[in-house]
Structure formats: structure tokens, C-alpha cells
Protein: Calcineurin-like phosphoesterase domain-containing protein
Amino acid sequence: MLLVSYYFSQLNWISISKEFVSLEDLPEEFDGFKIVQLADLHNKEFGEGNKRLVDKINGLEPDIIVITGDMLNNSQEIPNNGEVLVELLENLSNDYPIYYVTGEHEEGMYYEDRNKYQNKGTKEEYEERLRELGITVLNDEKATITEQDSKINLYGLKEHLSGEMRIEHRLGKTSDDKVDILLSHRPFYFDEYVDWGADLVFSGDTHGGMIHLPFIGGVVSTEELFPEYDGGLYHKESSLMVVSRGLGNNPVPLRVNNRPELVEIVLKSK
Structure:
């Protein structure tokens, strides 16, 4: 009974990971600016209408919410696929600006296989519903966030199933005088994000390695055994990357020492 209780607590007991992140050139107006990250929900529900998740987010009082993909499952077998996320966002979008980039599950909605285009209309209609709620979907695009007269840049990399980054071709060059924040589903391209010039990256995908062992870290992700970026804050040269352990599970409901996670990042001026 203890093992069963532990197993269900690991799947359903939401944790909050908070980090203070100092960035060069961050305007004073953004000092204390709070970003909450959601990732890898995979149609998971924390209570009816995701009420427990909504209550946790409201308790953090974010300035913006960023979503880094895989919020549903790529399957024709799931009726009303995406409705769990739509309902969640209906309960959040009136209170917070929300920015969204896709993962492989959104980009692969109803693919017959990875080499064929999706049936026309599935992903496009899903994204249009999000936009109608006021969600900013960033498909290789940039948004500008303004506090008083100061601005920072927020870029979103659309998930490419081919795995080709070509970031500068897709997003252009980073700015010389503004903080550049990047949303991208996959953390494995951290070197490319650093070379491009991102100051701060939000990513997910690894589910925290599913099983987290002391001194070892995550054991398995969708990409590899013992993933290098299983969760937390990573530094490389002048760039930082935040990797969420995610909220849901796919393809199996497995989390050990690795509870579902909301990430709270507070920006600080240096």
C-alpha cells in the first residue's frame, strides 16, 4: 500500500521549482519579472478541469506563462485530442499573457508516419483555437514584451520533426541591446542555442528522465538513456537553459523521485 501511494503521489503531486536568474542588460523595469513554465502535459488532468494545476499557477501570480510543447498526445485514438489543454487555457488566458511553442506531439498530430504530412486542418485548427483564446503561438517567430518603456525579446522555435535547427535562418540574429529569451521544446540543441546567442532558454521534453536517481540523475528520456539535460538550470558560456521535468507522462505513466513540475523563474538585473 505504501508503494502504491508513493507511485500515485509521484504522478499527481505537483512540485514547484523556483530559480532566480540574473541576466546581463536586463532593464531595471524587468527586475523581479516572473515567468512560469508549463511543459509536457500530455493530456494529464490534475482534478476536474485541471483545477489543482490552475490553483498552483494562480498562487504564483506570474507576469507571463510560457509553454514549451507536448501538451497533448499525437494519436488518432484519443477523442477530442487537445481539449484538456484548451480547457486549462480557458481558465488562465484572461489573467496572464501566454506564449506557446510546439513539441513533436503537436507537430505530429495525426501523422501517418514521420515522413508524411499531417492531414490538412488538424494542427492548424488546433492552433487557431488557441489564438482565439488570446494565446500567442510562436511558429519560428518573435514577440516583444514591454514593461513601461523597456523591452525584452521572446522567440519561439517551432518543433521540426526533421531535427534541423538552422536557428538564425528561422529567427534571424539576436539583438545587441536587448535580452533574448528562447522557447524551444528540445534541450539537446543547447550548443546551437548558445551559438545563436540566446540569453535564456526554456525547454522540456525529457520528463525529468522518468526515474531520478541520487548522484546519477534521470535514467531515460524519449531520446536517450541518462539524458544530459534531464531537468533544472544549465549554464554554458553566457547562456542559461531551464529544462522542465514536465507535468504529464508518455508513453507510460512512470515517475520515480520525479514529481510533475511547474517552473517559476524570477528575472534579476545584474
Notes: The longest helix spans residues 2-12. The chain has one domain: 2-269. The mean pLDDT is 88.
